[in-house]
Design goal:
Helices cover 33% and strands 12% of the residues. By secondary structure, the protein is of the alpha/beta class. The structure holds magnesium ion (MG). The site of magnesium ion has 8 residues, from loops.
Amino acid sequence: MHYADAQRPVRPGQFGSGGALFLDRDGVINVDRGYVHRISEFQFVQGVFDLTRFWILEVQRPIVVISNQSGIGRGYFDEEEYADLTQWMCRRFAAEGSPIARVYHCPSHPQHGIGRYRRDDPWRKPAPGMILQAAADLNLDLAYSVIVGDKLSDMEAGARAGVGLRILVRNGASEPGSGPSDHETAADLTRVLALLRRHFAAGSIDPQ
Ligand SMILES: [Mg+2]
């Protein structure tokens, strides 16, 4: 955890203003078992609804899911199966009091995609395309947005899009490579929520 730096990315008084919470899916919302595409395989990560309810109730800004889904391009499952699972997932978030505003996915893969899915896609993370599209669709201020992901490619996509606060959550995965980084790191979603509360508390104090 880099709590010492917790005030760094977002200016006090502005946190959440015009922003969104961007969530990666596999490894953040659900346990990453590899190409999850059935409800029976979809296990929500502990703490995810506490995190999303905090964002909806206290920050009162949209939640956006951005997910590489090369399993579609690789032919492991199809767009219809993905859409069915996504609709079910969104109903669960709504039932938990934290509706998802938009879900973006990228089915392509530059080497392993089949047919039209084999391409360099500007939506595939670490490219920032999905985030930039969401910003255009929802009129977001990315500097005051947050991204939570479990891979460095999520952090890179966030950085390239100009997302102000980027949080890498490990969720039991092995330690990422050490060295200087320009993102926060959290062990699990409970720690992510604590980090957001800290930023939000700092931002909610208005000296005027
Ligand atoms: Mg992931």
